[in-house]
Amino acid sequence: MDLFQETKFIMNKYGIKANKNLGQNFLIDEDIVNGIVEQAKISKEDLVIEIGPGLGTLTSRLLEVAGKVIAIELDKNVLETLNDRFKLYNNFELINQDILKTDLKSLIESNLNEKLNCCKVVANLPYYITTPIIMKLLEENLNLESITVMVQKEVAERLTAIPGKNKEAGSISYSIYYYCDAQIALDVPRNCFIPSPDVDSAVINLKLLKQPRIQIDNEELLFKIIKSAFSQKRKTLINSLVNKKICSSKQEAEKVLNEIGIDLKARPEELSLEDFAELSKKLS
Ligand code: SAM
Predict the structure, then answer these.
(1) Is the CB of 150 under 6 A from ligand 1?
(2) Residue 60 clears pLDDT 90, i.e. is over it
(3) Which three-class secondary structure state does DSSP give residue 92?
(4) pLDDT at 199 over 80
(5) pTM above 0.90, yes or no
(6) Pocket test for ligand 1, best of 51, 57, 107, 199 (most atoms within 8 A of CB)
C-alpha cells in the first residue's frame, strides 16, 4: 500500500474527513515525508515536538529515528487513530491541546535529560496559524535546536528572507533572522497532500543560534519599531514611525533617520536588522 492508499484506508476506517478549519492537508508523498525527517537530522538523543500529527504519517517516521516524540494535536477526531497506530511505541506521547495554549517550556524542560538532550520541532503546520506558532517557538525562550516545518511556499520565502536584502522580507523575517539561520530545504507541490491545498508548499529549516544575531539592550522596543514600521503597507518608514507614535513628530523622525544615515524616503523593507537596531538605540 502506498501512502495515498494508506491515508485513504485510515480515513475510511475511522470515518475521518479532513477538517478545512483546522488546516488539515494530509501528506501522501513518501519522499517528502522522508525528506522532512532527513532535513531535521534527528537522532535517538532527540526529543521531537510534532505540531499537528493528524493521521500520524510524519509521526510514524519520526518515531523510528527519534528518542521520543511528543505530538500535540487539537482535533479530537484523530486521537483514536493515533493512539491505535502507536500504542506499541513507548517513545510516543500524545497531547490533545491547542499548540498556542501549550506550556512548551515546562513540557520540554521536564522531558530533557542526559539521554534525551536536544529538542527539535518538526511539523507539517496548520497554515492558518503559521505566524503565531513560529513566533511562539522563537519568543518563549525554549531550549530548541531547530525547527523544521512545512509552510506555504510564499510564506517560506518571507520567513527565510534576509532583511534589508530580499524584497520578500516582512516583520517576521527580522525575528527569524535575529534568532536563527534559516533556509528553504524542500519545495513541495500541492499534489503531495489530500485534500490538495490551493497553493504550493515548502519545508523550511530554522537553526536556532546560540546567541541572537545582534546584541541589543531593548529587544522589546526593537521589535515594536519593526512591527510598527511594517504595519502600514506602502507607507514610508517616516510616516509609519509617526502614525504609530514611535516618533512624536515628522521632524523627530527625520532627525533620527538623518543621524543614522537612512534615506528619508526609505521603505521599511530596505532596512537591515542592524539599521533597526540603530534606530531603536536612538529612540530608547
Ligand atoms: N501531520 C499531518 C500530515 O502531515 O499529514 C497533518 C498536518 S495538517 C497540515 C495540520 C494538523 O494540525 C492537523 O492535524 C490539525 O488538526 C492540526 N492542528 C490545527 N490547529 C492546531 C492547533 N491549534 N494545535 C495543534 N494542532 C492543530
Answers:
(1) no
(2) yes
(3) strand
(4) yes
(5) yes
(6) 51
174: its cell numbers: 527580522
DSSP state of 164: T
What ligand 1 atom has the least distance to the C-alpha of 150? 9
Q: 36 CB under 6 A from ligand 1?
A: no
What would the grid cell of residue 190 be? 500541492
Q: Looking at this protein, which amino acid is placed at residue 106? A: S
Provide the 10 A C-beta neighbour count for residue 80. Answer: 11
Q: How many Cβ atoms are within 10 Å of 87's Cβ, its own excluded? A: 9
Lowest-confidence segment of 29-43, 87-101, 224-238, 242-256 by average pLDDT: 224-238
Task: Note the pLDDT tens digit of each residue in 2-36.
Answer: 999 999 999 999 999 999 999 999 999 999 999 99
| Protein residue closest via CA to atom 20 of ligand 1 | 22
Which amino acid would we find at residue 246?
A: I
Place of cell 542526559: 114
Instruction: Tell how strand 68-73 and strand 46-51 pair up.
Output: parallel
CA 50, CA 73: separation in Å to the nearest integer? 9
- Residues in contact with 62: Cβ distance below 8 Å, sequence separation at least 6, in sequence order: 37, 42, 48, 50, 69, 122
For the sheet containing 68-73, what is the strand order?
A: 92-96, 68-73, 46-51, 118-124, 144-152, 201-208, 180-188
Euclidean distance between CA atoms 41 and 66, whole angstroms: 10
Q: Is the pLDDT of residue 284 over 90?
A: no
pLDDT, mean of residues 204-230: 95
If pLDDT is split at 50, 70 and 90, which confidence band does 232 have? confident
